[in-house]
Amino acid sequence: MARRVTDGIEVERGSGNVFADLGLPDAEKLKIKSGLVIEITRAVRRLGLTQEEAGRRMGIPQPKVSGLMRGDFANLSERKLMDCLNRLGYDIEIRVRPTAHPVGQLKLAIA
Predict the structure, then answer these.
(1) Three-class secondary structure assignment of 58-108
(2) Res 47: pLDDT
(3) pLDDT, position 103
(4) What is the per-residue pLDDT across 68-105, written as a single tens digit (0 to 9) for each?
(5) 10 Å Cβ neighbour count for 66?
(6) Which of 10, 48, 67, 97 has the most Cβ atoms closer than 10 angstroms to its Cβ?
(7) Which DSSP state fits 6?
């Protein structure tokens, strides 16, 4: 990563994945899950749902909705988060294709 000094402060450009920059295990998975959680939060707000209503619609209890809205998504799988988005009126498309690199990558694109 590129480093530079601005106003006497050393600054390092991030990789685009804060979880990887922090050295957390499963950084790519965390990035995907956090993107899904952000979109769920936006959907709940856009639809004007209470946490109770959102929970009924997504099939999870209100306390889990509360945690989700605060960024606590450790107890929910990627699959469950995608199911929540489906229940909030989102289509999810997963595209698999060969890569030119030795190891492929996960990518989340929200339209």
Answers:
(1) HCCCHHHHHHHHCCCCCCCCHHHHHHHHHHCCCCCCCCCCCCCCCCCCCCC
(2) 97
(3) 87
(4) 999 999 889 999 999 999 999 999 988 888 989 998 87
(5) 14
(6) 67
(7) E
Q: Would you list the domain boundaries of the chain?
A: 25-94+103-111
Under CATH, what is the fold of the domain 25-94+103-111? 434 Repressor (Amino-terminal Domain) (1.10.260)
Q: How far apart are CA 77 and CA 7, in angstroms?
A: 42
Beta-bridge mates of residue 12: 3
The Cα–Cα gap between 90 and 98 comes to 26
Q: In terms of residues, how long is the chain?
A: 111
Tokens of 59: 């099939």
pLDDT digits (tens, 9 = 90+) for 31-69: 889 999 999 999 999 999 999 999 999 999 999 999 999
End-to-end CA distance of the chain: give it in Å, rounded.
28
